[in-house]
Amino acid sequence: MQKKVVILGGGYGGLLTALTARKYLGANEAPITLVNRYPSHQIITELHRLAAGNLAEKAVALPLEKLLRGKDVNLNINTVKEIIPDEHRVVLADGTSLDYEVLVIALGSETAFFGIPGLQEHSFVLKSVDDANRIRAHVESCIQEYSKTKNKADATFVVGGGGLTGIELIGEFADEIPALCKKYGVSFDEISLYVVEAAPTILPGFPEDLVERAQTSLGARGVKFITGVPVTKMEATTVELKDGSKIETKTMVWTGGVQGNSVVANCGIEVNRGRATVNEFLQSTSHEDIFVAGDSAVVMGPEGRPYPPTAQISWQMGEAIGYNLFAYLKGGKMEEFKPVFSGTLGSLGRKDAIATIGENKTKLKGIPASLMKEASNVRYLAHINGLFSKLY
Ligand code: NAD
Fold first, then answer.
1. Which residue minimizes the CA distance to atom 3 of ligand 1?
2. Best of 164, 203, 298 to mutate for ligand 1, by most ligand atoms within 8 A of CB?
3. What pLDDT sits at residue 23?
4. Which of 168, 172, 176, 319 is catalytic?
């Protein structure tokens, strides 16, 4: 008998689940439907470049229809509204619903606003291609406006949160905004770029010398750092900090953290702080017919701490689930998820980067780290379908 598989999400976890499952499961054995909010698989690790205008949209928004062509996967472009595990049913935003025998949840994470007043209403976030396009258009319109009005709020760009997302974005701003200034006859010296970080240093958890490198490299390109002071409020043209100081700006990109997806957190499966708890085969600990990939799940590492919610882990989870779906449906032996953590690569703009590589966290900076970052993107694109040459 055919078993219906529904995959929610076409990001790293969902796409890799679908592609891997089809290596083992014929279309006549298990019809697979993949639901995604956008028609594209988004390379979110490169969104900072799109947001600053250093990359074309087609390089980060790969059409799912093309990626899944010939794979016998039904693509449903729709937003997931509700998961009802006890009825084995998913409700979509257009009012339709999908029944499943096995469900894979790979819906990613959401931006955490921590209840900070005004933040959700007035800040920008960087979670999708649309978000990145919005930032890019807004930054340009501010600089254009500044050329006419000389209003300081138009010339001030703030990144709230100095984790990797914020630091990668400010690096691109530092490299790309000078060209925009030239376009509108504004001197780059009149532009202010800030990172506000609540922790004592940017990039908490990174080795000290790499933090130092990031700060020096970005500082030399005009970035100012305010550390040890959290953002506490935002209004249309001001960001307020805990020490009472205010920054006048029309642009704060909020990169202060992520949290579990609310659809997952509220659906009745077992969760830990909004992220689904899973067993060693990546099945929900409360529902064995639900597998969970990527940021929607929390996977504990050997030291009893959760693995970070990153693309490389999501991708590997998708592959593991792709195989385990086959084993589960065929009554075979599922494989334990054993991720390979190849390290962390963070760009500091076009020409600089920092990295910790491998289990022993070998440190890299500068061109070798930049090249590794580029290579990891190419490797991923080549892996998902050899599409690289066709899309660039
Ligand atoms: P994060 O949680 O890693 O960083 C958020 C930062 O915001 C923290 O440093 C935190 O102290 C700060 N913050 C929180 N509240 C604040 C406040 N009120 N005011 C000022 N600062 C505040 O979030 P992220 O950077 O979006 O990263 C999310 C995950 O994705 C992480 O696991 C990260 O490692 C991963 N990531 C990896 C890469 C990469 O590998 N290149 C790039 C981006 C993100």
1. 163
2. 164
3. 92
4. 168
* CA 259 – ligand 1 centroid, Å: 11
Task: Give nearest CA residue, ligand 1 atom 2.
Answer: 257
Residue 388: predicted pLDDT: 35
The model scores a pTM over 0.90: yes
Residues in the ligand 1 pocket, defined by CB under 6 Å:
45, 116, 160-166, 168, 196-199, 204, 230-231, 255-258, 308-310, 344-346
Q: Render pLDDT for 6-20 as a digit per residue (tens, 0 to 9).
A: 999 999 999 999 999
pLDDT tens-digit map of 287-312: 999 999 999 999 988 778 888 888 99
Q: Which 3-state string (H, E, C) describes the chain?
A: CCCCEEEECCCHHHHHHHHHHHHHCCCCCCCEEEEECCCEEECHHHHHHHHHCCCCHHHCEEEHHHHCCCCCEEEEECCEEEEEHHHCEEEECCCCEEECCEEEECCCEEECCCCCCCHHHHCECCCCHHHHHHHHHHHHHHHHHHHHHCCHHHHEEEEECCCHHHHHHHHHHHHHHHHHHHHCCCCHHHCEEEEEECCCCCCCCCCHHHHHHHHHHHHCCCEEEEECCCEEEEECCEEEECCCCEEECCEEEECCCEEECHHHHCCCCCEECCEEEECCCCEECCCCCEEECHHHEECECCCCCECCCCHHHHHHHHHHHHHHHHHHHHCCCCCCCCCCCCEEEEECCCCCEEEEECCCCEEEECHHHHHHHHHHHHHHHHHHHCCHHHHC
Annotation marks residue 240 as catalytic = no
Q: Quick one: which atom of ligand 1 is closest to the CA of 346?
A: 41
Ligand 1 centroid to Cα of residue 212, in Å, is 17
